[in-house]
Amino acid sequence: MDRRILMTPTIGFIGLGTMGEPMAANLLRKGYALLVYNRTPGKADRLVELSAEVASSPTDIAARTDVIFTMISNDQAIEEVYFGEDGLFSSLKPGTVIIDSSTISPELARRLAAASAERGAEFIDAPVTGSKPAAIDGTLLFMAGGQAQTIETHRDILLAMGREVVHMGPSGSGANAKLAHNTIVGINAAGLIEGMAIAAKSGIDASAFLRIVQGGGAASKQAELKGQKIIDGDYSVQFSLALMLKDLKLSSVLTDTLGVSTPMLESAKSLFQLGQAAGWGELDLAALAKVYESSIGKTIGGSEADAAKAP
């Protein structure tokens, strides 16, 4: 008998976007019963086919579940989901564990932890790395801030969606780690694209150059994930340019607070701001290449004519 038939929906999942939907799907495939909610209707259709139940609001989730995951795009949306009129905190039960895998400010993560504790619940900030491919494959890495015992107790649930869980420290530490990590991602992506633009303008074949990058000291996860997408002009979203810019802005605020000088972060942020201003925010972050293509007058993987036809 399907194990899910025997289980009540004790896990809630809020946020069914690029990352949240495949994460929730992996929980369902591992036999967990799920009550799901998304602010935009229709996002749960595929999960319903996998036996998920749809909640009417975050309040509904809080009233009916014991473990709640949130995977939401930004601080403002998190505020609404947690503190809004129909938010989680309006009906949160004592003993509930909330695990937020969004990329948010560490200050907000600590505030959510304090507000949860006031209600007799626990909050874990556990953002992830791996982007959409890892969310689909169930190979995400969770960087978790909060009580070590709570994280350990829920390790099996996390590993239903990922390959590793690393405890980073007290509340807010997961958020801090994610911003530091995504600072490197943004800088690496910009560096990869800048190098590919130099090669393209020099008349070097992009595919041949990417082989050199991947086989040498410039090899990186960004080269692996984005190199061929840039050559193909494939900007289908694994992680959007707008979200990358949002994370770099959060990291800039954090580093100002910490007093850390970050010239490379600021340069990468400025480049992604150019991409956002050009209207490419909802494309994959690899669309930063279009900023450079506009400058060199040709597409990195193609020709001057291709660049002229590009939107």
Automatic annotation (TrEMBL):
<dbReference type="Pfam" id="PF14833">
    <property type="entry name" value="NAD_binding_11"/>
</dbReference>
<dbReference type="InterPro" id="IPR006115">
    <property type="entry name" value="6PGDH_NADP-bd"/>
</dbReference>
<keyword id="KW-0560">Oxidoreductase</keyword>
<dbReference type="InterPro" id="IPR029154">
    <property type="entry name" value="HIBADH-like_NADP-bd"/>
</dbReference>
<feature type="domain" description="3-hydroxyisobutyrate dehydrogenase-like NAD-binding">
    <location>
        <begin position="172"/>
        <end position="292"/>
    </location>
</feature>
<dbReference type="GO" id="GO:0016491">
    <property type="term" value="F:oxidoreductase activity"/>
</dbReference>
<dbReference type="InterPro" id="IPR036291">
    <property type="entry name" value="NAD(P)-bd_dom_sf"/>
</dbReference>
<dbReference type="InterPro" id="IPR002204">
    <property type="entry name" value="3-OH-isobutyrate_DH-rel_CS"/>
</dbReference>
<dbReference type="InterPro" id="IPR015815">
    <property type="entry name" value="HIBADH-related"/>
</dbReference>
<dbReference type="Pfam" id="PF03446">
    <property type="entry name" value="NAD_binding_2"/>
</dbReference>
<keyword id="KW-0520">NAD</keyword>
<dbReference type="InterPro" id="IPR008927">
    <property type="entry name" value="6-PGluconate_DH-like_C_sf"/>
</dbReference>
<comment type="similarity">
    <text>Belongs to the HIBADH-related family.</text>
</comment>
<feature type="domain" description="6-phosphogluconate dehydrogenase NADP-binding">
    <location>
        <begin position="10"/>
        <end position="169"/>
    </location>
</feature>
<dbReference type="InterPro" id="IPR013328">
    <property type="entry name" value="6PGD_dom2"/>
</dbReference>
<protein>
    <submittedName>
        <fullName>NAD(P)-dependent oxidoreductase</fullName>
        <ecNumber>1.1.-.-</ecNumber>
    </submittedName>
</protein>
